[in-house]
Amino acid sequence: MKRSPHLRLRRPLAAAAAAAGLLGLLTAAPDPAGPSSAVPVAAAENTATVFYYTKTRDWSAYNLHYAPDGGSWTAVPGVRMEAACTDWVKKTVSLGSSSGLAATFNNGSGVWDNNSGKNYALGTGTITVKDGVVAHSDPCAGTGTDPGPSPGTGNNATVYYSTTTVGWSTTNLHYRPTGGSWTTVPGVGMEAACTGWVKRSVDLGAATEMQAAFNNGNGVWDNNNGSDYLIPAGVTTVKDRKVTKDAADPCVAEPPDTEAPTVPTAVKADADGVSVVLTWEPSSDNRGVTKYQVTRTGGSKGTMVSDVGSTVFSDAGLEEKTAYSYTVRAVDAAGNTSAPSTAAKATTGTRPTAPATGKPLGTDPRKDPIYFVLTARFNDGDASNNRGGNQDVKSGNAANNDPMFRGDFKGLVNKLDYVKGLGFSAIWITPVVLNRSDYDYHGYHGYDFYKVDPRLESAGASYQDLINAAHAKGMKIYQDVVYNHSSRWGAKGLYTPTVYGVRDSQWSWYYDEKKEGFAYDGLTIDPKTGKSYYNGDLWSTEEPAGNTCVDWGKPTQYTSPEGYRIYNCQWPNPTSGMFPKAYYHNCWLGNWEGEDSRSCWLHDDLADFNTESAPVQNYLIGAYNKYIDMGVDGFRIDTAVHIPRTTWNRRFLPAIQERVTQQFGAEAAKNFFVFGEVGAFVNDKWNRGSVNHSAQFFTWKERKEYDADDTKAALEMYDHEEKLGTGAQPTSTNSFLDGNAYHTPDHSKFSGMNVIDMRMHMNFGDANNAYNNGKDSDDSYNDATYNVVYVDSHDYGPNKSGERYAGGTDAWAENMALMWTFRGIPTLYYGSEVEFQAGKKIDCGPSCPLATTGRAYYGDRLAGTVEASDFGKVSSATGEVANTLSKPLVKHVQRLNDIRRAVPALQMGQYSTEGITGGMAYKRRYTDAASGVDSFALVTVTGAATYTGVPNGTYKDAVTGDTQVVANGRLTVAAPGKGNMRVYVLDLGGRNAAPGKVGAAGPYLK
Q: Is 42 helix (H, G, I), strand (E, B) or coil?
């Protein structure tokens, strides 16, 4: 993932929220005697009066076993509780200076209510515990300062409060009727009404309204930013600080929907060869449009009706020189259908000459070590598509003649033999879709997800050509894809915001004059300005009709990096009103390990898709179906953690499987490799204790049913799994041997997404540390043998370093020896085979030249010719690429690939450390009865090892060719030295014979 630093992240509430430790909605406690103007001062000694509901227990005695926060527990069974009133017992306890207590309840004879294994977390004051629900009120109070609901002839107020935003497990209403007294803090407990809502009814007497605030009973308040809510008599809802008077009961089922959506407008059909792309403006509906029906007439095949989830429809494979007509209807969830739109017509041309559609290689992805390239920075095959963008001069790239878009598909095709000669059989490339941002060479700011960025393509070197050329050499293409966000200019074909940046004397350089008919494609040069980064459609001198952006055109307190005054609505952002909620989330991320990290913007250059919205889902599924159809072999998923697992499991992952199965069959779908970036940049097994933000979590299916609505389901799943915690997550033995035996893995609960091994990545400052951290996590993945393992990448080095790995050649050799023999799929970032840019800052955005960073151009190291006769075998090389191929780490990685390719256990095997002494030492086995493969290997990296209880027989080392005969289940191996290793393979004869020494001794493997 790339986050452009060009513009500062603007979150007006962030500073205050950080200071309070809360979201902007929540504030300090109000004064119980009047308006919310002060925080109540705690008494010298806190107490808690705990009421416990007895009716559903019917115990003969009730005991409170507790510990003040930070203090010691009472002796079991705790303190006896006393009768309070019908169905209630109580106990008042002293907490000293503690602000709460942990508690459980029991009958004194071994029967406990410990809240399903989790202690109750209680605050101070008056607390009730009823059937697992904690509230703050006195259930036995009849009169006094707590005017709770009671029969009367006065006015009544029923208030519903939405808990979705605050996420409280208990909610209290603190109030006073006009002219009356405030309730005692924290007020009266509110009761659950339905999912996401609590309610309370209050007798107002003669008053017609009340002042109110809400809190969680533990000092966290929503007092409407210091101005108490005014709640009138009748039914009122309070949601996100909005008070709705005379509201409908939010928990009552909605009446049947009989209203049809509006008719789609601005329907436009554009022909390109024998394809037609149809676009239209979104329809509106009282409850939301779920799909569109496109009807095509014309041609010899008659009428065709297609269901479409987005506002773009691509109709391919039509007849040549034929007139077609299209109409569009909008459909809502209830099946109400609009009238057809005005017809749009297009006439096809001749069928263009195009490369044949590819087909994925469809083999087990664990066989294929991965080479990762930033396509635009790898190798330049066609200078005519190079582009510098509007930061070319400022960044210093122009002075180096190093435009950000420099490498391309032609350059990669030309050097496929270099990658194959290193021994890699899979290439992970950065996103290919048309990008739009101020610094978008990396590909993570998608604008048109249905179009390949023309800055990467050339005549005879299209994306399809690259896929086909790689496949012809037996190499796979893994495409980096982004489901979480688009560029800040939106997503063409789904929604693109109109951006009203004031074009004054300061900004005339940025906002071009409008040019009718000129459309941004990243490549085409505007003849008037000489620019390819056209922004003429992004400004207005006057506020346009229908503007939704707040405070349009008014100057703000902010300036750009150049020192220019920034105006409101200068750029798209989530809180301006520019982005419809149907397509984009409308909030800034506040907590990287909070629920909002899955439903808010990460950065102002990354407009966060509402991935729980059907139109967005269908737009993205349709886009990535295009690349599946081209024959790519897998997807690397960017920012996967920022989309709820329910959405992956319900929508995107099944859609991938369905499309690959439909196009290429079940076996190809099984081996279509999907691996996600779940950015857990910490060293612990579970990311700061949050399961929802941990890599292994995404390898599993859901364990229960959630609401049919994807937004509600995401929240339900998040809360459910966080409440279960790390100890209740599923475990697996899929990566572990059973003694010395391989066992058939159980993938029945596999989600369809594998992951990058973030824990090993973070700990690769030292190979032994990475190894021990990796194996500590392996029981929590569905199958860790599919983990993608790397030392550094285009984002980070180990320990969240911002520099490319600089541990030294010996350390690199040791890291590689581990990665190529331990479970998982070894992955190398381009140039690491020569320690390219070691220690350089990986990315500094437009503030410095790319040549000084970890994303520098690599093509200079590849000049000349290279031919590979097989994986890891270079038959000829000339020029600078020959020098590159002579480097010691190149020789090391070539031989590692040779050895791994010769020993199936190193590719797909399960592993164990049982009966083994040594540092990085393990045994691996892979058995496939259907193909007759059985491979068993004993591995030690760097240090000595002793193996006991292993099968007897003849073992041959793949590094030295040494032969050892084991007769007593014991093999001892001397330390091979740093960066070196030993791989003793059991000789099982026939096709499972040990390969003996593989390749020639090199600088490390010897």
A: coil
The residues pairing with 387 across neighbouring beta strands, listed in sequence order, are 405
Distance, in Å, from the CA atom of 275 to the CA atom of 271, rounded to the nearest integer, reads: 6
Classified as helix, coil or strand, 487 is strand
Neighbours of 897 (CB within 10 A): 23
Please provide residue 632's backbone torsions phi and psi, each rounded to the nearest 5 degrees.
-60, 155
Instruction: Name residues of the chain where pLDDT drops below 50.
Output: 2-43, 143-152
The answer to whether the beta carbons of residues 490 and 645 sit under 8 Å apart is no
Strand partners for 244? 237
The single residue listed with the structure tokens 């889902």 is 617
Please state, in angstroms and rounded to a whole number, the distance separating the CA atoms of residues 122 and 69. 9
CB 821 within 8 A of CB 906: yes
Gyration radius of the chain's alpha carbons: 32
Helix (H) or strand (E) segment spanning residue 941 = strand 933-948
Angle, to 10 degrees, between the axis of helix 809-819 and the axis of helix 888-902? 10
**Residue in the block written with tokens 């037996």:** 474
For 241-291, the pLDDT digits (tens) are 889 999 888 888 778 889 999 999 989 898 877 888 787 888 989 888 888
Q: Give the number of C-alpha atoms closer than 13 A to the C-alpha of residue 248, restricted to the C-beta side.
A: 6
Q: Report the alpha-carbon distance of residue 418 to residue 885 in Å, rounded.
A: 8
Instruction: Work out the number of other CB atoms within 10 angstroms of the CB of residue 592.
Output: 17
- Residue 894 has which token pair? 């070539």
* CA within 13 Å, CB half, 875: 6
Report pLDDT for 9.
Answer: 30
CA neighbours within 13 Å on the CB side: how many for 112? 15
Q: Name every residue whose Cβ is closer than 8 Å to that of residue 555 and which is 6 or more positions away in sequence.
A: 565, 566, 567, 568
Which pTM does this prediction carry? Answer: 0.71
- DSSP notation for 43-87: PSSEEEEEEEE-TTT--S--EEEEEETTSPPPSTT-EE-EEEETT
Distance CA 445, CA 492 (A): 12
- Give me the pLDDT at residue 30, please: 38
Number of C-beta neighbours around residue 273 at 10 A: 15
Q: So what's the pLDDT on residue 143?
A: 36
CA 176, CA 223: separation in Å to the nearest integer? 13
Residue 696 CA to residue 717 CA, distance in Å, equals 16
Q: Give phi and psi for 966, each to the nearest 5.
A: -100, 120
Contact residues for 705 (Cβ-Cβ < 8 A; gap 6+): none
DSSP string of 805-873, one letter each residue: --S-HHHHHHHHHHHTTSSSEEEEETTGGGTTTTTSBS--GGGS-GGGSTT---GGGG-S-EEEEETTE
Does residue 39 contact residue 28 with C-beta atoms inside 8 Å? Answer: yes
Only one residue has tokens 């020029």, namely 879
**Contact status, residue 633 vs residue 672, Cβ threshold 8 Å:** yes
Measured distance CA(958)–CA(907) in Å, rounded: 14
Cis peptide before 77 (omega within 30 of 0): yes
Mapping DSSP to helix (H, G, I), strand (E, B) and coil, where does residue 778 land? Answer: helix
Three-state SS annotation for 443-481? CCCEEEEEEECCCCCECCECHHHHHHHHHHCCCEEEEEE
Give, in degrees to the nearest 5, the angle at Cα 631 between 627 and 636.
60
Contact (CB, 8 A) for 815 and 770: yes
Find out whether 155 and 207 touch, Cβ atoms under 8 Å: yes
Q: What are phi and psi of 619, to 5 degrees?
A: -60, -45
693 DSSP assignment: G
Residues 6+ apart with CB under 8 A from 423: 369, 871, 872, 893, 894, 896, 897, 898, 901
In terms of phi and psi (left: phi > 0; alpha: psi -120 to 50; beta: otherwise), the region of 833 is: alpha
Using an 8 Å Cβ cutoff, are 461 and 527 in contact? no
pLDDT at 778: 98
Please give the DSSP secondary-structure letter assigned to residue 267. Answer: E
